[in-house]
Amino acid sequence: MPDESPPSDVLSFDLTCQRWLPVQYLDGTPGLLSIREVFEQAGQVRRLIGDVPTQEFALLRLLLAMVHDALQGPADIDEWADLWADDDCFAPLSGYLEKHRGRLDLLHATAPFFQVAGLRTGRDEVFDLNRIVADVPNGEPFLSARMPAVGRIGFAEAARWLIHAHAYDTSGIKTGVAGDDRVKGGKVYPLGVGWAGNLGGVFAEGATLRETLLLNLIAADTTDLHVGSDDRPAWRREACGPGATAQAALAQRPSGVRDLYTWQTRRLRLHFDAEGVHGVVLGYGDPLTPHNRHESEPMTGWRRSQAQEKKRGEALVYMPREHDPARQAWRGLAALIADRVPGTAQGSEPAASLRPGVLRWVARLATEGVLPRRYLIRARVVGALYGTQQSVIDDIVDDQVAMAVVLLHREHANHASVAIGAVTDAEACVSALGDLAGDLARTAGRAPEPVRDAAREAGFGALDGPYRTWLAALGEAEDPHEQRTVWQRDVYRIVSRLGRQLLTGAGDAAWEGRMVESKKGSVWLNSSLADRWFRGRLNTAVGAAFSSDAEAADAAGGTYESDSDSSSPKVPV
So which residues are the signal peptide here (predicted)? Predict the structure, then answer.
């Protein structure tokens, strides 16, 4: 039976019909849509756009929970294929939203969306919205247009930050709320960040929001994904009280992705008037430990943690693989596309890492022929980096890697191995560039580490665009190994150019050189010898891509000089 609408004199913000979801249309223009409109126009929308990238991830998971629940599936790959072929596949959402609109009202008197009615602290404190608005840097107000605090926001923005708080709220000591038996001295001590804050978030992005939703809509019969019979989102469960749900009940959950994507990690209550939201009460909600949740959480990669195995006394522990904000997503491609990376050379050893479940699902779609092998997706990576005992968000990661689904295809492993090998080529050549910078610093008596790191950063920066372009086109190749040769030549050319720039700027001190210690003892190191070592390392890394010395010299933009002290081919100097 549908929930009744509130009386006309009661404030309401019905998320099903009020516009609060920011989107980007296919022509690049922005818009603001209700949940109902998002599903109706999903084929014309390019993507969701959050106030911060992590907000987009949290909002996408909310919509996925709705689709899973409204469709009660998909049960298997055949049901999914029917949805993919049906332009009106989200039509059942209209009746579903109507049925549950009372629980999807941000301001509902007794069961407000993602909140606890009447939530209060022991002293009836109401806090600034800084507690949930994550684009206000803690202690750095001058980096935000909202300085120094958030006084008031509209209902649409409040709804987005509410969802984000459940997903990414910081840890730390929080003021206790009345009725929570975890309160000690008016406080609750740290219980961890919001669930998504534990993750190195990953999702598959298509050409439209419709495709993105479907690509991440994993069938219930998927291996290594737990979907229980009681899998329900938060709005179809009993409204939360101020404290944590009973431990006995939590022990059986999450019961599936609908439960997990809407997990109530916090207890919140917005304070508002007719003009908008002006305060919040925020406390801890239902705890959820991240270890060994790989069969419940498909939107992150996983790594084996021997440290946690020892600490917990368990034989096998997998932890979410977090993102490194200093490393481009393509450099971690193996963790995205390799099915399982073995822990050791022995096949019986558990996998050292597991790729995200959503990409395993896309691999299945490609392998079973539901998606054409040249269909292009973007593997989006999103995550929060916390600092100071997880009490602040220091950085947010947002990156993507475009690839054809053939790279995930189980029967076309050559494409994946070539793509991963190409990253290895880049790493080796950039390492050679860094060593050149370090050697040039040593010729002048300077510390090598700072300039080595700067050169490596410049090297990866220069290869970033070319690699992404090369990878996106790899799916078109009949022989991927030929394309690796093309890539190796490009890397050689790009890194050689950067090496020449370092040598040109090294100065007279580097040309004259000095005596330094090397692996073979003391040696007179100058820019000429540093260059020779650099070219030798490049040849070792990717020199096989050239059929002759002349080709390599042409790619490097130099001439050749014999190197009688090395068994490697002649190198350009």
Answer: none
Residue 551 pLDDT class (50, 70, 90 cuts): low
Asked if the structure places residue 465 within a domain, the reply is yes
| Residue-number span of the structural domain to which 145 is assigned | 10-411
Fill in the amino acid letter for 499.
Answer: G
Compute how many other C-beta atoms are within 10 angstroms of the C-beta atom of residue 532. 17
Q: What is the pTM of this model?
A: 0.89
Domain final residue pick, 374, 392, 411: 411
Alpha helices in 444-558 (DSSP H): 448-474, 480-504, 508-512, 527-542, 549-556
**What whole-number distance in Å separates Cα of residue 283 and Cα of residue 173?**
10
Q: Which residues contact 548 (CB under 8 A, 6 or more apart)?
A: none
Signed CA dihedral, 351, 355, 361, 366: sign only: negative
Rounded CA separation 102/550 (Å)? 74
Report d(CA 167, CA 153) in Å as an integer: 20
Q: What b-and-e string marks burial along 369-395, b requiring 16 or more CB atoms within 10 Å of the CB? A: ebbebebbbbbbbbbbbbeeebebbee
167 and 83: one domain? yes
pLDDT at 345: 42
CATH of the domain at 533: 1.10.132.100
**Amino acid identity at 39:** F
Q: How far apart are CA 351 and CA 345, in angstroms?
A: 11
* Domain count across the chain: 2
Using CA atoms, how far apart are residues 358 and 204, in angstroms rounded to an integer? Answer: 7
Give strand ranges (E) for 333-420.
340-342, 351-354, 376-387, 392-404
Among candidate residues 411, 438, 453, the one where a domain is terminated: 411
Task: Check whether residue 315 and residue 426 sit in a common domain.
Answer: no
Query: What pLDDT is recorded for position 522?
Result: 86
Residues 428 and 335 in one domain: no
Token reading at 560: 């050749």
Residue 5, domain member (yes or no): no
Q: Is 193 helix (H, G, I), strand (E, B) or coil?
A: coil
- The answer on 348 and 279 residing in a single domain is yes
